[in-house]
Design goal:
The protein has a single domain, classed as Spore Coat Polysaccharide Biosynthesis Protein SpsA, Chain A (Alpha-Beta Complex). 37% of the residues lie in helices and 17% in strands. It has eight helices and nine strands. A seven-stranded mixed beta sheet has the order 3-2-1-4-7-5-8, sandwiched between helices. It has a two-stranded parallel ribbon with strand order 6-9. Helix 5 packs parallel to helix 8. It is globular. The two termini are 29 Å apart.
Length: 225
Amino acid sequence: MMNNLTLIIPAKYESESLPFFLKEIQKYPCEKIVILKKEDIETINSIRNFRCRILFQKGTGYGNAIIEGINSTKNEFCCIINADGSMDPKYLEIMLKLCSDKDMVFASRYLGKESGSDDDNFITLFGNKVFSFLGNLFFSLKISDILFTYILAKTNSLKKLNLKSQDFRLCVEIPIKARRNNMIFLSLPSYERPRIGGKKKVNALRDGFIILVYMIKLFFNHKEK
């Protein structure tokens, strides 16, 4: 099944981490798509010797990079996995197996003793708990980590969601629209590792506010699927 999987790897100024991460995942016989801007010459040069497909991003933003990656995928399954090495690829095989009769599988940093994060601070931990609570309360998602985009899914299921968020709002758009489209999904405990290099792209307060406003909009717009 692994040869029917595409890894969607959004990368923005990840020349420090991406070569190490690509070396780690080269043992997995799946397609790797790295999505980045054509102007990101340093990152491009850092991965010249790796077997991966480079997709030059036409739009802007984290969500846009993922959407462009999904739309370019032809394999049955795809997985969103970050270039900074924080998402451990050791979960890929079990996520792929679980997804055989599901639409998607969400990795969770807050699901039992086997989960956790070396990248969280108090603000991000608190924010994740609040947004996950709101997602479960208002949309009946029944997931424990709504802001974590380590997601493996059937490619056609993701394409059916008609995703639109160009930024970090995508992390909540995926599970909310999956629920509204009556898709079947579950969560898997996972541990988030320290990032290999580079800086965190999320601004906790600014992006948190944007995500909150978006969730309120979706709550009152019941027709958006």
